[in-house]
Every structure is written in C-alpha cells, then in structure tokens.
C-alpha cells in the first residue's frame, strides 16, 4: 500500500515535444508529491513538488498535474530539450513522515 | 551555502567485510536520511537521524546501522556485506520542521560487493 507506481519505464521524445510521466499511489495518507531528476553519476535533485490542495503546479517548463480522486499525478515537460535527458522519479510522503517513497523511475531521452 | 557531500565516491569490498560511508549535510539542516538505490531502481529508505538518534527506519536488517554527529554529519555502517548490498548509497539532508521536509540529496557512494 506504500508503493508508488511509475510509468513508462523509458520514454523517447523529440526536441520541442511534450514529455509526460505518470505515477499512481494507493496510500491516501500521502499528501506531498515531489519529482526528482537524476543525471548519471549524480544524486537525485528536487525538481518540483505538489500538495493535494491544488490540482496543478507549474514552474517554468515543468508542470505537475494532480488527480486526488484517481490517486494519480503526472509530470509534464513542455518544449523538451536534450539537456532534459535524465531519469525522473516521482515520490510521495505524508506529514511528519521520515521517508520518501519513490517510484521505479523513467529514463527520458530527448532526441535533437 | 554548502550542499550535501558524501565520501568516498566509489568503494569495492568483498562479501563478509564491513563498510563505513560518510555524509556531510547541507548548511542549516539538522536531519540526515540514508537511501539505497539498486541499479535501475528508485531509492529505498534505510533510516533517518535527527538530534543524533535514529528517527525512523525502513525495511533493512540490523547490520545496517548509522550515526549522526553534533555537527549533523552522519555515517552509514554496513556489517557482513552481501552481494545484494551492491548499490548507490544516497544521503539526503533536510530541516525537520514538523511539517514536510524537503530532502536534498548528495551525489552518492557507489558500493560494489564482490
């Protein structure tokens, strides 16, 4: 019940296109949903995060859409660039929790 | 502001040995969490330290232990290494504010167990 399921496992998008990565969860206690970006040989870097009191959050080219009733959330990368090529992880946590529960990751490749 | 640093970068050990990994937290943070990231997987929570005491633990055996020091730096110790312990070990620091703690990760230590 504490799992976060992420899809797709890998994604190839043309430069300038929209990249979409989806996550689903079961635990209704989750109320904090961050996305991390990880480049090879580096640790995950916090990209953007959302709480369930809003349905969408946008920061630059990155947007999180959140559907509380469906227990799903997604990351949209607009105007995708080759520099966005990385592995993306969704995660979830709840107030007072010590840990983040991560999805399996999506390897995103942006073709020039 | 100094980010999270970890040492060493890479480490090779043999089965049965013991290993110590080190982490310096980001300036101003008082909490350190450790995660194990197997190849091709998401990070898995090992434990968290706050005020030099364990403050939550994931599904890892007791041979995984840790310490936090007064300057908020931390160590992860793994005894009796097994082949499956080969992974990237990530340290994340945060400020335990009682609400949500945004966790900021270091570059990790790549451990290979032969």
Walkthrough of the structure:
The complex is a heterodimer of chains A (112) and B (114). With 112 residues, chain A is mainly beta. In chain A, 0% of the residues lie in helices and 53% in strands. Chain A is built from no helices and eleven strands. The radius of gyration of chain A is 13 Å and the shape is globular. The N and C termini of chain A lie far apart (39 Å). Chain B has strands at 5-7, 10-13, 19-24, 31-37, 44-50, 53-57, 64-68, 74-78, 87-94, 104-105, 109-113. In chain B, the strands form two sheets. In chain B, strands 2, 4, 5, 6, 9, 10 and 11 form a seven-stranded mixed beta sheet that branches. Chain B has a four-stranded antiparallel beta sheet with strand order 1-3-8-7, with no helix packed on it. Chain B is globular and about 40 Å long. Chain B is mainly β. At the A-B interface, β5 and β10 of A face β5 and β10 of B.
Give me some keywords for this one.
heterodimer, A: 112 residues, mainly beta, five-stranded antiparallel β-sheet, 0% helix, B: 114 residues, seven-stranded mixed β-sheet, four-stranded antiparallel β-sheet, 50% strand, globular
Envelope shape of chain A? globular
What is the β-strand count of chain A? 11
Residues in helix, % of chain A:
under 10%
Q: Can you tell me the residue ranges of chain B where pLDDT is under 50 for at least 5 consecutive residues? A: none
Summed over residues and divided by their number, the pLDDT of chain B gives a mean of 92
- Report, as a whole number of angstroms, the end-to-end distance of chain B: 38 Å
N/C terminus separation of chain A: 39 Å
In total, the number of strands of chain B is 11
CA radius of gyration of chain A: 13 Å
Quaternary organization: heterodimer
Major sheet attributes of chain A: 6 strands, mixed
What's this entry about, in short?
The complex is a heterodimer of chains A (112) and B (114). Chain A has 112 residues and is mainly β. Chain A has strands at residues 4-7, 10-14, 19-25, 33-38, 45-50, 56-59, 62-67, 72-77, 86-92, 101-102, 106-111.
């Amino acid at each position: 019940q504490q799992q976060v399921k992420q899809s797709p496992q890998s994604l190839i998008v043309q430069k300038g296109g929209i990249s979409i990565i989806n996550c689903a969860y079961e635990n209704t206690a989750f109320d904090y949903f961050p996305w991390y970006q990880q480049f090879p040989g580096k640790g995950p870097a916090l990209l953007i995060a959302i709480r369930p009191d809003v349905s969408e959050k946008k920061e630059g080219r990155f947007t999180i859409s959140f559907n509380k009733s469906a227990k799903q959330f997604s990351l949209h990368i607009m105007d995708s660039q080759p520099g966005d090529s990385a592995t993306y992880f969704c995660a979830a946590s709840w107030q007072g929790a010590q840990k983040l529960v991560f999805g399996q990751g999506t390897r995103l490749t942006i073709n020039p | 502001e100094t980010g999270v640093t970890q040492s060493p970068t890479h480490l090779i050990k043999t089965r049965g040995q013991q290993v110590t990994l080190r982490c310096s937290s980001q300036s101003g943070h008082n909490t350190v969490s450790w995660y194990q990231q197997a190849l091709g997987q998401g990070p898995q929570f090992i434990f968290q330290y706050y005020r030099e005491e364990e403050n939550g633990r994931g599904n890892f055996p007791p041979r995984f232990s840790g310490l936090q020091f007064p300057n908020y730096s931390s160590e992860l110790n793994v005894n009796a290494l097994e082949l499956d312990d080969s992974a990237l070990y990530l340290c994340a620091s945060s400020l335990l504010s009682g609400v949500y703690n945004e966790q900021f990760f270091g570059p990790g230590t790549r451990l290979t167990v032969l």
